[in-house]
Amino acid sequence: MGTCVAGRAVVDRKTKRLLQRIKFGDIAVIFHRDIDELAAINLVKSKARGVINFQPSISGRFFNKGPVVLLNAGIPVVDVPEEGLFDAIRDGDMVQIKEDGEIMVNGRFLCRGVILSQELINSKLEEAKANFEGELEKFAINTLEYIRRERALLSSDYSVPRLKTDMHRKHVMVVVRGKDYREDILTLKSYIEEIKPVLIGVDGGADALLEFGLKPNVIIGDMDSISDKGLMCGAEIVVHAYPDGRAPGLDRVKQLGLNYHIMPVTGTSEDAALLLAYHSGADLIVAVGTHTNIIDFLEKGRQGMASTFLVRLKVGHILIDAKGVNKLYRGGIKINYIAALFAAAFFPIFILGTTSPAVRHLLRLIFLKVRLMFGFL
């Protein structure tokens, strides 16, 4: 790791909340088992100087890419097995991470953790390979079990708020701040400018849209990973609530004095957004940055994907998942495309020139003009 690193501590048990506050040179103090790739990318983007994790950054349960991202960016990560010491570090404390994993807080020794190394990551990845089939089986069983409980999603046994935003027979783009969301939004910019779809930001997805100068029409979610600026951008707000009526994000919205709707439905906020668009009469739903595979769900701490499976089963006929669309098409004009374009444009002119006397005379005049310009006459 080289010499020790030091910085101001930013502490939070929820990494997505911490990411809203961390600044250049800070030390992130987190409680995040199996750091996911997106969290790691955002820690790199925020230019965190180091990470102290009071949970295993890579447990070997499955293949999570977050630790590799941090290691490749040169950000030291130290895992501390003593969970009870988490509260010993507070926001603003001066923290040092030394080469041997020793952690100093305000000049005093706190504990010694385990520095994340490539060798450690490799050994955990081998464990993950051995565990994958078992994790897949558990995930499938849990999914089937949850499907039995959540099948009401197919029968519309839930209420959908009526919004001022008109989605009837329109394209709706649902944006989640998931992996590659920036690249996918960039690829879809021309589509957005031309079609002007209704934009729904799912929690931090609203901030993702604002990054590109796009204002969301609707924001839906638990309101735990969106900035105050995002919440106050003027979009209609839908607080995602559990079927029993609990709405974790409601207090924050009330504190900001914002108007809101409540949508009580089982599943993730992404699922709720798709259902909202579907029941609001959307003609087409384009999903950006959503979570759709087992690694996505394990990284999010979910043990099954029943609600996502059922929701996509319901809305699938009007749903286009744009995840990774930037890899399918990368802008850039190739010479053979230009040649084909010229050939396609010239062919009808050639046909007209050989069949129409007027066009034939016009082409002769153009040909003579070009010869005069270049001194060939």
From TrEMBL:
Region forming the signal peptide: none
GO biological process: thiamine diphosphate biosynthetic process
Pfam families per UniProt: SteA-like_C
Domain SteA-like C-terminal per the UniProt entry, residue ranges: 323-374
Sorted UniProt keywords: ATP-binding, Kinase, Membrane, Nucleotide-binding, Transferase, Transmembrane, Transmembrane helix
InterPro entries: Put_SteA-like, SteA-like_C, TPK_catalytic_sf
Record field: transmembrane: 337-363
GO molecular function, a single term: ATP binding
NCBIfam families reported in the protein's UniProt record: division_SteA (NF040608)
Protein name as it appears in the record: Putative membrane-anchored protein
